[in-house]
């Protein structure tokens, strides 16, 4: 609850700050301070938390797990502000508004991690989505940015409709919105519930850009200002997954229910893995490659949703953290390179060794190489899926896809280290360097000792 | 404690070396490898008196039931000894060479040493996997930065090949872990699994493919000749001398004891593949003109024999393979050192352009002949002991297998002697007439190798005793 309140308040405050504070640096500092406050407030709640306590007439239930997830999301946002905060002012003049929108998204994410009512789920998804439509189009003079916003908005609102329809159907059968009391029972499911679950799967798959609902992703990620792509592809996506996981693990696991959706979701996951990885191989722009890689990574996170066990919940936390830190870092490096094609990275290692090293560590983590956070993230979701017992084919497929992903991630490394070139690089501050080193340290620390995060579960 | 030290020395010195300039990295590399060798020697003594002291266990990821558990048995010690000697030899040989960005070069070399020692000492499956990958990554960068013309695509192929294998192994490890009653990755709980035969049958392939790619055995070998050819020779020495032993070690430590029935069921297939590899690689080696590729194919043939011996799985073959792992490492590093010297002097590796080097570099010629003879397992050289034991083991398994594998010896003699003839004997030409004899560092490295070859050829008992405990262990699970 604390995180929800403080992020929502910060969002409102930041809109007013934009009116009175002209210095953009100060706005950034304010935003960083606000994330820190939210982070601390969120952790403070853990001390007094009573498991199973509910708020807002039982529509929200805060648990240790949701606090931990909020901490990961807020921590990743903090890193994002520190690494890329100064890029906000390059997008346009309304810097404070952009920060405010990010905070609204964050409040949606904190809601997604603790809802216990289908209406709250709907609210959370909408609060996450609407600011994104604006952020995608924030580079107003750029045609591609406008296209991205329009595309995202049209398709996003369509999927919202589907989500609402699914909720309505389930309500029609169960007579309640409370995810714990849907009482699906162990007998045969009401056809309304089955179609409701399917619609929910489709709508949420859209939000996390799973195949075949992914078509908006490359265009939106490519067209949006890079600094916002970085946020959308990481923290926001993790927020979508936490809603997915929470809903399906809490409500649709009992007896016959999982039979109906398990295979559908497994096929969606398989499609996401295959298509995301294979398409990423053929990209010429690193930014677009990262867009497809985010689809591919979503396939891995879907494994956790399907697996339905304790390992999966651990896995999703670790995956969210590992993936967010690495991708935010990778985008921060990308924004310092002028040319987004693979050739633009040629020879970066000689010119900017730290930038190249950081990119290498982040890409290792995304590829799941041991001693980086990404390895244990992948390990946990794979282990969860093996443990589930019926999905060994999917695990083998995922593993092959992970091997394919090495191909396109390493293309960047090859360009940076083994090819000659004169890359054009934007100037960056000592503070940026320091934050890159911190990000590298986080990736490696979680890779050597994942207990740092998991011990709080 | 010594075991941890063995991993820490190269790890720490490796990290220190990064960014070093001038001759600093060289010296540090040499000191580090000497220190590693001293620690291995210490561990050898402790192994005689109090072997339990070499086991170290510390908490790592309690949520998973994985511990940082390392230890040394006879086979582990033997391989750590090989690793320490190999890196020392490499560093001595290249002491007078200057590499671009020496800090990174020596740093990556030492990091790969840390990974290798980790693989040979890990007693926890997850830790084993982590080290397994860790040994690969520095090698990837070494080959891609300091290798030959086609280095980038070739090394990339190598990386993707091995990474795919490793990931399949990871799935196998996860499955085994989930079957263990106490949810632990420890060696003890893995070996006590006793899974039903049917599960062992498919799990075998998940693990075996990873090891087979690393060894490599036919038909998983296609990365190997290209990589050996394109890598800088010091890296090739490590790759062929030590790193391929990871695959053999993996089978001996993590496959046979964990999935004995799976290994038994597929033994015939594995042996047939290995034997095909022996004959096939030997035939290709006979027609190679490229010095480096010839040795690469000869290595596939030798590894094929070792892999066949593993699956023949009786006491003699297991003894033989372990002894041969060490001796093959020493011999092939010796061959690579000579290749490195010739290549560095004459800048060619095509054997047609060589010839008559014996007239100008007699000492080098003598060393090359001894090492080459050891490589084809002449009696009184170290290669003989291992090969004899392996063949006698294969003979007990199946006489026909042994007969076909035995062709490998004959073919090895053909291509090795042919190579000697073309490179050091025969007519000299204007190029080879410029050859100069060995420098001091090269002399030291080659002398050390020849001493090992002769001592272990005449008196192999210490080595056999060292590995006998592991042999009994592996053998007893059947």
Please give a structural write-up.
- The complex is a heterodimer of chains A (457) and B (478).
- In chain A, α5 (95-112) packs antiparallel against α6 (118-136).
- The model of chain A has no long low-confidence stretch (mean pLDDT 89).
- Chain A has helices at 2-20, 24-47, 64-84, 88-91, 95-112, 118-136, 143-174, 191-207, 216-223, 226-251, 257-281, 286-307, 310-336, 348-351, 353-367, 373-388, 392-418, 430-448, 451-454; strands at 54-55, 60-61.
- The radius of gyration of chain A is 21 Å and the shape is globular.
- The longest helix of chain A is centred in the middle third of the chain and has 32 residues, at 143-174.
- By secondary structure, chain A is mostly helical.
- Chain A starts with a helix and ends with a helix.
- Chain A is built from 19 helices and 2 strands.
- Chain B has a domain at 265-478.
- Chain B is 76% helix and 2% strand.
- Chain B has helices spanning 2-17, 24-49, 74-93, 102-121, 125-146, 151-179, 187-191, 197-214, 223-230, 233-255, 260-286, 291-312, 315-346, 357-360, 362-375, 382-397, 399-423, 440-458, 461-476, and strands at 56-61, 66-70.
- In chain B, β1 (56-61) and β2 (66-70) form a beta hairpin.
- In chain B, α11 (260-286) packs parallel to α17.
- The chains are: A mainly alpha (457), B mainly alpha (478).
- Chain B: Residues 122-407 form the NADH:quinone oxidoreductase/Mrp antiporter transmembrane domain.
- Chain B: Belongs to the complex I subunit 4 family.
- Chain B: Keywords: Membrane, Transmembrane, Transmembrane helix.
- Chain B: It is a multi-pass membrane protein.
